[in-house]
Write a structure and sequence with these properties.
Helix 2 links the parallel strand 2 and strand 3. The chain folds into two domains: 143 residues, Rossmann fold (3-Layer(aba) Sandwich); 133 residues, HUPs (Rossmann fold). It contains ten helices and ten strands. Helix 1 crosses helix 2 and helix 9 runs parallel beside helix 10. It is of the alpha/beta class. This is Universal stress protein. Pfam families: Usp (PF00582). InterPro entries: Rossmann-like_a/b/a_fold (IPR014729), Universal_stress_UspA (IPR006015), UspA (IPR006016). Belongs to the universal stress protein A family.
Length: 299
């Protein structure tokens, strides 16, 4: 699908009135300015008045919620304008619930941006299965803005596991590094605890690492011609994937991962690697789902 490449599509931001959401707004506004696209601020106030039909005070309560939500979005629009002067800003307030709303908005978005913690309808957005579901269902890449001091000069880091999904993440990461004029750190982690425990004395670990180096080189083949201005640093490390990516994300301005990895337990990878990054990364995290960016055109 590759809709994130369509520069006519907006960067959508989920708004809930939290300081985290305002951080996401500022990040999204700067990203929209780089892309030359609008930023679209969206908030939902989760009205449940249908359960209490007949109460004469509910209409006034709903209007109060609506007015308060619009004030929150207006404050977010001001923050966006201050972060990126001249960026086009649109606003939407909906009587509904955040996750379905953001999933719908992602269908016509180039990027979906949220904060790492929230208030109101977005409370605990990144706890448990909700964030996992949003990352899995969104029709565009999802960026979770976290980290107290986001670098504007650090590299973009991408996790590569050799799967088609990591190719999607690699495409997004190269594009992000190129747009920012910064290097790309390609991290390939290999580790098999079961193998280590069972036959560790019999394994030629140097040979295994050499094979993993070849695999990473194969995955990166062709991208240098497509993005000649992006300097690439290759990292092949024997470690736990989440630990290695969090370590290399220190000082970075963005870390990019696929929505899940390879193998029969692929669904668990989002719950381990991506989930760990969403909670512990020192910088914003981009989760790229299969189909939300183009497969490698250079492979």
């Amino acid at each position: 699908m590759g809709q994130w490449r369509d520069r006519s599509l907006p960067v959508v931001v989920g708004i809930d009135g939290s300081s985290s959401a305002l951080d996401a707004v500022r990040w999204a506004a700067r990203e929209a300015a780089r892309r030359g696209t609008p930023v679209h601020l969206v908030s939902a106030f989760g009205w449940s008045g249908k359960r209490h039909l007949g109460d004469p005070g509910l209409g006034h309560y709903r209007e109060t919620l609506m007015r308060s939500t619009w004030e929150t979005v207006s404050a977010a629009a001001k923050a966006a304008a201050e972060a990126a002067a001249g960026v086009e800003i649109s606003e939407l307030v909906v009587d509904g619930f955040p996750v379905p709303l953001l999933t719908t908005e992602s269908r016509t978005a180039g990027l979906l941006v949220i904060g790492d913690r929230g208030l109101g309808g977005f409370t605990s957005l990144l706890v448990g299965s909700v964030a996992i579901g949003l990352a899995a269902r969104a029709q565009c890449p999802v960026v979770v803005v976290r980290g107290e001091h986001t670098s504007d000069t650090g590299p973009v880091v991408v996790g590569i596991d050799g799967s088609p999904i990591s190719e999607e993440a690699l495409a997004f990461a190269f594009d992000a590094a190129d747009a920012r004029g910064v290097p790309l750190v390609a991290v390939h982690v290999w580790n098999d605890r079961a193998l280590e425990d069972a036959v560790a004395p019999l394994v030629d670990w140097d040979a295994v690492e050499a094979e993993e180096q070849v695999l990473l080189a194969e995955r990166l083949a062709g991208w240098g011609e497509k993005y000649p201005d992006v300097a690439v640093r290759r990292v092949v490390v024997r470690d736990r994937p989440a630990h290695a990516l969090i370590e290399h994300a220190t000082g970075a301005q963005l870390v990019v991962v696929g929505s899940h990895g390879r193998g029969s337990a692929a669904g668990l990878v989002l719950g381990s690697v991506s989930h760990a990054l969403l909670h512990h990364s020192p910088c914003p995290v981009a989760v790229v789902r299969t189909g939300s960016s183009p497969a490698a055109e250079t492979s």
